[in-house]
Specification:
- By secondary structure, the protein is an alpha+beta fold.
- It has one domain.
- Helix content is 34%, strand content 40%.
- It has a four-stranded antiparallel β-sheet, covered by helices on one side.
- The radius of gyration is 12 Å and the shape is globular.
- The protein starts with a strand and ends in a 6-residue tail after the last helix.
Length: 80
């Protein structure tokens, strides 16, 4: 079952980190484009986000802030 872990929206676009079992799905979108990638972990998804050149720096920064906030309060996914 896929669940949302982090969802960031700015005027530049949207970044979502989803959990699908132990895998992480990264959904990114902006004006006129969207991309979906699957990774083995949230850590790998963060690295993947850094490589998407279409993601503007302000959206990237906010997405990481939001994700780290989730990690701080809820811990690493699958670490229970």
């Amino acid at each position: 079952m896929v669940q949302h872990y982090s969802d960031t929206r700015t005027s530049d676009g949207r970044v979502r980190f989803l959990l699908d079992g132990k895998a992480a799905v990264l959904l990114t979108e902006g004006p006129g484009w969207q991309q979906q990638d699957q990774f083995a972990s949230v850590h790998d998804a963060v690295l993947g986000l850094a490589l998407i050149s279409r993601v503007p720096q302000p959206l990237y920064d906010q997405a990481l802030d939001d994700l780290y906030h989730q990690l701080y309060f809820f811990g690493q996914p699958g670490a229970a």
